């Protein structure tokens, strides 16, 4: 009898971990666990033909930011790396800001449609998002190539005589990232706007505010959590972008993701690649911590 | 009374224009890409008439066929695996009191969503290279394991959402009527959970089908999925053949997303 009464709680406690085991095992083996190996590799010595030699070294981390002159051993900044970090950061930030400028009004437009239409409008935002990222990048590439639709059209109209070189520029990468990540901005802003109480806006107008003031003093502050979430959702993948700069930057305009790949390919410096990957991961984690803090502060602040 | 009749408090100047621009920006490139897959000429900008030419030549391309087959297999197997483990994980993590290690479990399950894909790709490249060194095995299993893993959170989300909205009382009633746990699961939980499982499986399928970065790093030489094949084609002259492959992939994804949307609508 004692056994029979004990059993439910025992199985309840243990069956949870039995049910979780397959998912956790799979993810620990093929997603979460290998991250630790990357951390270890960043402290090893590169092998001659790729791979590593199991000898402790901090050279890879040193090489992330600095380089030794091969002749006189003087230490200088790794200018090539710093230029790529700077491009990654700059393009990711510009993309986020432009995505906000497009995304906020779009989310607002959808949130102010009649209730039964809103889901359909959101579907229109989500369909491109769930289609292949590479295909969407290709679509942009075909549009802005020298012999693409935009240049053909402009030349046909006689506005320009020579095609404008847009492909393989920073501008192309920015447009590409804006295109692929825009839905990520619209989604959380829409979620916070949908819950927004428009009687607050009416109150604003009753107090003789104009439209711009209502937008700045009422709508934007109340929907700030959605805006912060959307910005993070765009910023993080933009920082780690690999496909878009590879396709639209044409190999020369590298971002951090491409620099990482290079170390595992032609660069044959796996520890440096591992250190760069860890750096990217640290930046992303720091951004998320910032987000959690900002979202937490919001709860106490404006309510 | 200050407001004139018909004053719309929700209106903001220029927002509708920007929204329209936004939808145009989202759809014009895709529509043009699909359109030019039917172009009779080789141009991706000058329309020379309708033709199935590029679909026919793509169909005859052995490399594309092989890549398509691998893509399909990967998507089927990994979405099945990911959905199965996600159902079990969702059952274990929803409708229960907070438990020890909750945050860690969520972090592990959602790892593929939080860590940049390039980092996971590099991690898998290194890890699998280690295993290859020790075992000598260089086959296709690595791709299947990697795809199954990163599909898990996408399968997990809709299943978890569905479970959270489900009432425990039905299952308790079934238990009270002496249903064995397995029977209760089969006869009560599973039928109710079904739309969530289907939605999760479809998301996982689309995610696997579309993956480029992790596949590119994990695949052995000569193993190509449709996306990595297309990425490889970049170095050559781009013909509308790529558009034709893209259009087929787009059609699959869009169909899946719309079915997913309809399933979700019915739930609400």
UniProtKB/TrEMBL annotation, chain A:
Pfam families: BPD_transp_1 (PF00528). Keywords: Cell membrane, Membrane, Transmembrane, Transmembrane helix, Transport. The keyword rRNA-binding does not apply. InterPro entries: MetI-like (IPR000515), MetI-like_sf (IPR035906). The chain crosses the membrane at residues 17-44, 91-111, 123-144, 171-191, 226-244, 272-292. PROSITE patterns: ABC_TM1 (PS50928). GO terms for cellular component: plasma membrane. It is found in: Cell membrane. Its main location: membrane. GO terms for biological process: transmembrane transport. Residues 85-291 form the ABC transmembrane type-1 domain. CDD domains: TM_PBP2. It is a multi-pass membrane protein. Belongs to the binding-protein-dependent transport system permease family. CysTW subfamily. This is Spermidine/putrescine ABC transporter, permease protein. It comes from Roseovarius nubinhibens (strain ATCC BAA-591 / DSM 15170 / ISM).
């Amino acid at each position: 009898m004692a056994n029979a009464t004990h059993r439910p709680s025992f199985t309840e406690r243990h069956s949870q971990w039995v049910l979780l085991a397959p998912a956790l095992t799979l993810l620990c083996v093929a997603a979460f666990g290998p991250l630790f190996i990357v951390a270890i590799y960043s402290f090893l010595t590169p092998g001659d033909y790729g791979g590593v030699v199991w000898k402790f070294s901090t050279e890879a981390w040193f090489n992330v930011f600095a380089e030794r002159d091969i002749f006189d051993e003087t230490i200088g900044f790794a200018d090539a790396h710093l230029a790529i970090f700077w491009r990654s950061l700059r393009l990711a930030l510009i993309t986020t800001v432009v995505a906000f400028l497009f995304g906020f009004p779009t989310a607002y437009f959808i949130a102010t449609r009649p209730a039964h239409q809103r889901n359909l409008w959101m579907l229109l935002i989500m369909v491109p998002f769930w289609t292949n990222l590479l295909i969407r990048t290709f679509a942009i590439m075909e549009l802005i190539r020298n012999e693409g639709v935009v240049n053909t059209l402009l030349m046909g109209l006689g506005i320009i005589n020579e095609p404008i070189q847009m492909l393989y520029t920073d501008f192309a990468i920015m447009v590409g990232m804006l295109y692929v990540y825009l839905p990520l901005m619209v989604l959380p802003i829409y979620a916070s706007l949908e819950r927004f109480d428009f009687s607050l806006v009416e109150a604003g107008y009753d107090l003789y505010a104009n439209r711009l003031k209502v937008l700045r003093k009422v709508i934007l502050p109340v929907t700030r959590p959605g805006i912060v979430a959307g910005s993070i959702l765009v910023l993080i993948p933009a920082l780690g972008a690999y496909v878009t700069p590879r396709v639209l930057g044409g190999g020369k305009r590298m971002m951090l993701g491409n620099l990482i790949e290079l170390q595992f390919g032609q660069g044959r410096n796996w520890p440096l690649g591992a250190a760069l990957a860890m750096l990217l991961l640290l930046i992303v984690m720091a951004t998320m911590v910032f987000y959690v803090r900002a979202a937490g502060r919001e709860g106490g602040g404006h309510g | 009374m200050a407001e004139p009749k018909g004053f719309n408090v929700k209106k903001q100047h220029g927002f509708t224009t920007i929204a329209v621009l936004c939808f145009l920006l989202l759809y014009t490139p895709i529509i043009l890409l699909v359109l030019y897959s039917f172009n009779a000429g080789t141009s991706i900008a000058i329309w020379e008439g309708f033709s199935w030419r590029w679909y026919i030549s793509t169909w005859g391309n052995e490399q594309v066929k092989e890549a398509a087959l691998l893509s399909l297999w990967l998507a089927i197997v990994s979405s099945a695996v990911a959905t199965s483990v996600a159902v079990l994980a969702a059952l274990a993590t929803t409708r229960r009191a907070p438990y020890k290690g909750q945050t860690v479990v969520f972090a592990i399950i959602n790892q593929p969503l939080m860590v940049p894909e390039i980092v996971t790709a590099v991690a898998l490249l290194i890890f699998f290279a280690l295993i290859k060194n020790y075992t000598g095995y260089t086959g296709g299993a690595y791709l299947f394991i990697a795809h199954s893993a990163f599909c898990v959170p996408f399968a997990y989300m809709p299943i978890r959402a569905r479970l959270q909205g489900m009432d425990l009382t039905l299952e308790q009633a079934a238990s009270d009527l002496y249903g064995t746990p397995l029977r209760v699961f089969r006869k009560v939980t599973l039928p109710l959970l079904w739309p969530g499982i289907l939605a999760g499986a479809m998301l996982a399928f689309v995610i696997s089908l579309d993956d480029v970065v992790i596949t590119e790093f994990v695949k052995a030489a000569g193993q190509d999925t449709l996306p990595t094949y297309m990425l490889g084609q970049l170095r050559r002259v781009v013909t509308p053949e790529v558009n034709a492959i893209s259009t087929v992939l787009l059609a699959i994804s869009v169909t899946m997303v719309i079915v997913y949307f309809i399933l979700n609508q019915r739930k609400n």
